[in-house]
Write a structure and sequence with these properties.
The protein has one domain. The radius of gyration is 15 Å and the shape is elongated. Helix content is 66%, strand content 0%. It starts with a helix and ends with a helix. The chain contains four helices and no strands. It is mostly helical and 62 residues long.
């Protein structure tokens, strides 16, 4: 089939449950500063101490 053994036995990850903290933090920043763009919101999250990378935050932002 072309699948690795780990991919066959590993349960499917729930992306919405995994992204919930990112969405909550991003929603709080956007509610406080609605005119800010992505990078300004991302920088604010980093200053608040969150260590999520830009790709993970971008998926939730979009």
């Amino acid at each position: 089939m072309g699948l690795g053994r780990a991919m066959y036995y590993r349960p499917v990850a729930d992306g919405v449950r995994r992204a919930a903290p990112v969405i909550a933090a991003l929603t709080a920043v956007v509610a406080a500063h609605p005119r800010w763009g992505f990078w300004k919101c991302f920088d604010r999250l980093r200053l608040d101490g969150h260590s999520w990378n830009a790709k993970r935050v971008w998926r939730s932002y979009c």
